[in-house]
Task: structure prediction
Amino acid sequence: MDFTNLNKEELKGLLKDLRLYSNLTNKLWYRWKRIFSKIKNDKSYYLVEYYPYADLEFVFTKSVEVYKRFFLCSPLREEIVFLPKKSLLWWMKVYKDDDVVDLSFEKVERNLKK
Result:
């Protein structure tokens, strides 16, 4: 990239982005990519962790219901990242950016052990 052809406003914007990048990588470690992408593109990150033996279509329909009810949004299927996770002990966890709704029996099991 040739910086000599950029005007003052473009250089200020680039410097602002570099400072943001530096702050995020120092403070958030592995989450910085999602946060940086959200700030720059104004696009949320959707993740659904689910028990691998559950039907993916069922998981999708339930996750959309959770997004509508708790996060007041309706992401498309292509926007949601589905991640199978055996440790969930049936059911799922639904994430939007840094917020989570835990619908797994793992949560109930933890509460019972207390």
User: Anything to note?
Assistant: The chain has two domains: 7-40, 44-113.
